[in-house]
Amino acid sequence: MTSFFSKYLRKVELMVTFALLLAACSNDDNGFVSVNPVGGESCAAIEESSSSDYALSSSVVASSSSADGLVSISTTVMEDTLEIFAFGGVKIDVVADSFLTKFDYGDVVTVMIAGYDTVDVPVVAGYGYVFPGEFFLYVSEGLNYIKLEARYGQMAEVVGLGRDLKFPIDVIVQMKEKGGYVDHLENLKSLSIANYPGAYPDLSIEEFANFRMVRTTGMGEGVLYRSSSPIDPAIYRNAIADSLAEVAGVKTFVNLADELQYAEEYKGFAESYYATQNVVYLNVEPAFANTPFKEGLVKGLRYMVEHEGPYLVHCTYGMDRTGFTIAVLEALMGATADEIKADYATTHKNFYNVVDGKHVDLTTKQVELLQAIIVRLMQNSFKTAGVDISDFENADLASATEKYLLALGMEKSEIEVLKSRLK
What we know:
Strand content: 15-25%
Number of strands: 15
GO molecular function: phosphoprotein phosphatase activity
Keywords: Lipoprotein, Signal
Protein name: Lipoprotein
Signal peptide: 1-23
Strand order of the largest sheet: 1-2-8-4-5-6-7-3
Number of domains: 2
Structural class: alpha/beta
Pfam family, one: Y_phosphatase3
C-alpha cells in the first residue's frame, strides 16, 4: 500500500512539474525547434521529361523497355572501392542527368546487381528524403553517377559486396512503380516537431516524453516500456522520462544511443534514477540491416535475459532505433502486423505534427505512410538474415522473428528465457 501511494504522489509531482515547465516555456520562442525529421531540404519538384537519350559515362549504358512496358537500363558498378568499403555506397555508372530523362524523383525502382542481391528503392535527391535505416537510390543533378545507399547504413554489405568482389559487375535498374514514393516525399516535407511542452497542449506528460508501456499481444502487463532518452537533454524530455521510469519501477534500461563515458557527461546524470539501475549502453546507428546494429541488438537482448524487468528501451527520440527494437520484441511475443504498425506510428503522433507552433493531429494518410516505414525496415533487415516476411500482413511474425534472432547469433535457450521474461 505504501508503494502505491508513493508512486501516486510521485505522479502528482510530475504533473505539477510539467505544468510549471509548460508555463515557463509557453512564451519562450527559443524553445521551439522546427525539425524536418529526415534532415532534408524541400524535396525537388518532380519534373516530366520526354527525352529518351542516355548520356554515356565510362561504360556503355543501354536503356530499354521490358515486355510489360517497364523502363530499364543496363550498366555496371563503378570501380570505386573506397566508396564501397569505407562508406558503403554503391556507385552505378550512369550520368545522373541522363538517368532523370527516364526516371523521376519519387519513382520506386528495382536494382539488380548480377551475382549479388536485388533491392527495391525510391529515387531521391539525398539521404534527407528517407527515414533512418531506409534504402534509396541517390540521384543528384550534375553528377556522373547514381548511387545505391542506406541512410546511416552500409549498402554494400546489404547487397553482399565483399572484399573478394571482381569487376565488372553488371547492374540493371528497372522501374517498379512510377511515382510510388511521391506521397512519402510530400509527407516528409510537411512534418516538424518542437522541443518544448507549450507546443503540445493536447498531450499528457507521458505522451510528451514519448513514454508508454508496450501492450501488444503476448506482452506482459508492466514488463516492457519505451520512451525518449531519460538522460540526454537534447530534446528537453529527459527529466520527465526519467521520473516516469522511476514511477513505473523500471529496473533495466537498454540504451541504444550512448556509450557509458558520454552518458555520464550529461547534465544531471549522476542525480538521475537512471544512474542507479541496470543499463546496457549500445551506441548503435539506425542501420538495421548491417552487422553493427545486429550485434548491438543481440547484446541488448542478452542483457535483458540476464537482468530482471521491468525493462525500458530508448534511444534519443525513442523513434527509430527504439521503434525497430520494440517491433522485434512485439513480433517475437506474438503481436499482429496491425499492432506493430500502430505502436510504431504512436511515437510519430507524439512528436508530429507541429504547425504554427502547435501540435496538430496527423492525417489518416500520414499515419499510414509512417506505418509503412516499420514494415520496410523489418522486411529489409530480416531479408539480410535469410528470413522472408515480404507478405508482412500474413506472415507468422513470431516464428519469423525467432528465426531472425537465431540467424543473428542468439541461442534457442536465450530466446526462450527472453520470452519468459516478457510474458
